[in-house]
Amino acid sequence: MDKMLYMIVFSALAITSMVHDTAAQTVHVVGDTMGWIVPSNGAVAYENWADDKTFRVGDTLVFNFTTGRHDVLQVQETSFDGCNSQNAIGTAIMTGPASITLNSTGDHYFICTFGTHCQGGQKLEISVSDDSTRTPGTNPPPRSVDGPTGSVPGGIVPPPPSSSTTLLASFLLSLSAIALVIFH
């Protein structure tokens, strides 16, 4: 009877593990190979970069920059438009590369507060949607980040493990636990 109870519990855990975490998050390297710099063509550089991206809750933005030369600060729209830090959301991240997880829907605004960097175009506006429309088990390919900072070893920021990999590992772990209970 005890073995039957263990089997039921471990089977339930296996099923729960398979259902858990089916949505994969996307890692977006801001500016791709350009990195987080004052772009030569102004703010249009980051506007163009963001245009073909879909940002969802749970995704991560990676800002590649040289520590001591740039920073990243999330601000409200009025501060974004005026390139000031008066309506900051949190504190500036001074150490590069910086990773920011998108935790809410809506418009998000990021600036560099060094000198006139924001006025020079080092600012990013994105719109974040709900993650409920994400296709389970999909991830983008790794993105190259060999840019002016060179701060990521190997120049690649890998995407998070795919949901199918996570599910398979969870399932195999659960099956191993069940086998131990049955044959112990």
From TrEMBL:
Signal peptide range in chain numbering: 1-24
Chain ranges of the Phytocyanin domain: 26-130
UniProt entry keywords in alphabetical sequence: Copper, Disulfide bond, Glycoprotein, Metal-binding, Signal
Disordered: annotated span: 128-159
Pfam families, sorted: Cu_bind_like (PF02298)
Keyword Transit peptide: no
Domain of life: Eukaryota
GO MF entry, a single one: metal ion binding
Gene3D superfamilies hit by this protein: Cupredoxins - blue copper proteins (2.60.40.420)
Keyword presence, rRNA-binding: no
GO cellular component, one term: plasma membrane
Protein name as it appears in the record: Phytocyanin domain-containing protein
